[in-house]
Design brief:
The complex is a heterodimer of chains A (114) and B (111). With 114 residues, chain A is mainly β. Helices cover 0% and strands 55% of the residues of chain A. Chain A is globular, with a radius of gyration of 13 Å. Chain B is built from no helices and eleven strands. In chain B, the strands form two sheets. In chain B, strands 2, 4, 5, 9, 10 and 11 form a six-stranded mixed β-sheet that branches. Chain B has a five-stranded antiparallel β-sheet with strand order 1-3-8-7-6, with no helix packed on it. Classes of the chains: A mainly beta (114), B mainly beta (111). At the A-B interface, β5 and β10 of A face β4, β5, β9 and β10 of B.
């Protein structure tokens, strides 16, 4: 009955590999996001999708590609992983645009690139 | 620019009140939020306030908003060990339709 769930919880991989993180929400929200939290706990938005359409794309390397097959799912694929990609990645959802309703977060995926 | 600032650390004695402060830059922010993050977990929404309000109280939590100074605070009454966490302030930036988070304040409780 988890509202926003993301898998895997932990991901350890080597530089140069390609990996994906999946996210699903059962709240009926129409907007989903990916945030990156670095080792100092700074939280920065990466992408936002509303009804499967990309609405926010911050300055993120092209190696990161979000995909939203439907409004309940937002996956994040990362190509050619680098050491600096190590972080905790949070998926979130909200109803409507961000300026109208709070975000509901998943528990995060801790990515470690070695 | 888009900015939300808060102090990084706060230490309080168990049973005292904790006050976490936050400042933001966008005067058109419509909603301001407080999130709590416990170790190894995601961010949990604690409370939020609409910009036309000055205060909101929810059990042990009191949010004060000074819109003129763009200052937001979260007061936790009777702080308990279970309140140990990182508290994030966040503000909506309507011009870009997104929420900007502060750096988080790590609250530690001493006996």
């Amino acid at each position: 009955d988890t509202a926003v769930s993301q898998t895997p919880k932990y991901l350890v991989t080597q530089m140069g590999n390609d990996k994906s993180i999946k996210c699903e929400q059962n709240l009926g929200h129409d907007t989903m996001y990916w945030y990156k939290q670095d080792s100092k706990k700074f939280l920065k938005i990466m992408f936002s999708y509303n009804n499967k359409e990309l609405i926010i794309n911050e300055t993120v390397p092209n190696r990161f590609s979000p995909k939203s097959p439907d409004k309940a799912h937002l996956n994040l694929h990362i190509n050619s992983l680098e050491l600096g990609d190590s972080a905790v990645y949070f998926c979130a959802s909200s109803q409507g645009s961000q300026s109208q309703s709070p975000l509901h977060f998943g528990n995060g995926t801790r990515l470690t690139v070695t | 620019g888009e900015d939300v600032e808060q102090s990084l650390f706060l230490s309080v004695r168990e049973g005292d009140s904790s006050v976490i402060n936050c400042t933001y830059t966008d005067s058109s922010s419509t909603y301001l939020y407080w999130y709590k993050q416990e170790p190894g977990a995601g961010l949990q929404l604690l409370t939020y306030i609409f910009s036309n309000m000055d205060m909101k109280q929810d059990q042990r939590l009191t949010v004060l908003l000074n819109k003129k100074d763009k200052h937001l605070s979260l007061r936790i009454a009777d702080t308990q060990t279970g309140d140990s966490a990182i508290y994030f302030c966040a503000a909506t930036y309507s011009s870009a339709s997104k929420i900007i988070f502060g750096s988080g304040t790590r609250l530690s409780i001493r006996p």
